[in-house]
Amino acid sequence: MPLLTSPFAELDLIRQPEQADDPLQAFDAADQYLLEHLASQGLPSDCRVLVLNDSFGALAASLCADLQVVSSGDSHLARLALEKNLARNERPFDSVPFVPANEAWQGPFDLVLVRVPKTLALLEEQLIRLQGHLAPGAQVIAAAMIKHLPRAAGDLLEKYIGPVQASLAQKKARLLTASLEERPRVSSPYPTRYQLDAPALELVNHANVFCREGLDIGTRAFLPHLPRDLGQARVADLGCGNGVLAIACALLNPEAQFTLVDESYMAVQSALENWQAALGDRPVEVRAADGLAGQEKQSLDVVLCNPPFHQQQVVGDFLAWRMFQQARDALVVGGALYIVGNRHLGYHSKLARLFRGVEQVAATPKFVVLKARK
């Protein structure tokens, strides 16, 4: 894989999760453009820099030897990538503090570097949270590949930070530089909430939660077919989002024990708040993690999963396949993985390669609900 070469460093970077012969690299031309721009600015070594949404640590790892860098984002996988890439390039793995997106920063910052996220609600929430954390004269610089840079991103920078200057394009990348200007303080419109009829729930959704405005159609197809009569089974909701699958299943199975896992910190926060609202102090484990990678082998009886089909802007079934493998390892012999997926993704044949039996529980014109027995 090519090295990330900039005026600050030459780095050997990997993506997370790792996969053999990964054709994708852990940085892009927008990272390089931003680093070259910063090198031309002559920043002092005491400059405090906040890096947002640095997917695999390319920016933070490049800058941390020269500037005071804090990294923040909503991805636990990004946090793991940062730690691994720091160590991989002979930097202390803890040389860049990481602040999950649902926790507060400790400003003020002289410079904020933003990789524009796929979800603009996350960008808006982050810009709102910058209020009170910017030093006088601070700049906020957003970077993206042009094909992933909606006009609304510049509008949000203008609205919450100040006047925006767009750079010329370079290798199909662009920078947006917002200069700090007095703006009225605003309250965040997040989290949002929506009502569910069956089961009767009000669900809280923080800014980066998948399908924040309403129940996604895959989950809607899954809900009527959740397993019942589980007794004291140990159940995991893998990629839990706002926790709706686990909560609905817990209401059907009052003695079952639940673990909710997602790589999004805002999803985990939403899931915990929703669980407590629906189920009070009923015990639960909710954690941000790399799927079930840290789960003890043969420690679960049931896994529920509505698998993702993309990582940021990259579409594919690698993450889903990995989640299926993790579920198989974590399940006891005779345990079951229940999933919902688009018909065209062909999950039945993929699961049949990992599990001894796969059956179709239900189907709609677009989705299938499958049960795979270990």
From TrEMBL:
Methyltransferase small domain ranges (all copies): 201-371
InterPro entries per record: DNA_methylase_N6_adenine_CS (IPR002052), RLMG (IPR017237), RlmG_N (IPR058679), RsmC/RlmG (IPR046977), SAM-dependent_MTases_sf (IPR029063), Small_mtfrase_dom (IPR007848)
Lineage, top ranks: Bacteria, Pseudomonadati, Pseudomonadota, Gammaproteobacteria, Pseudomonadales
Enzyme category, top tier: transferase
Keywords linked to the UniProt accession: Cytoplasm, Methyltransferase, rRNA processing, S-adenosyl-L-methionine, Transferase
Name of the molecule in the record: Ribosomal RNA large subunit methyltransferase G
Any one cellular-component term (Gene Ontology): cytoplasm
EC number: 2.1.1.174
Ranges where the RlmG N-terminal domain occurs: 2-181
CDD domains, sorted: AdoMet_MTases
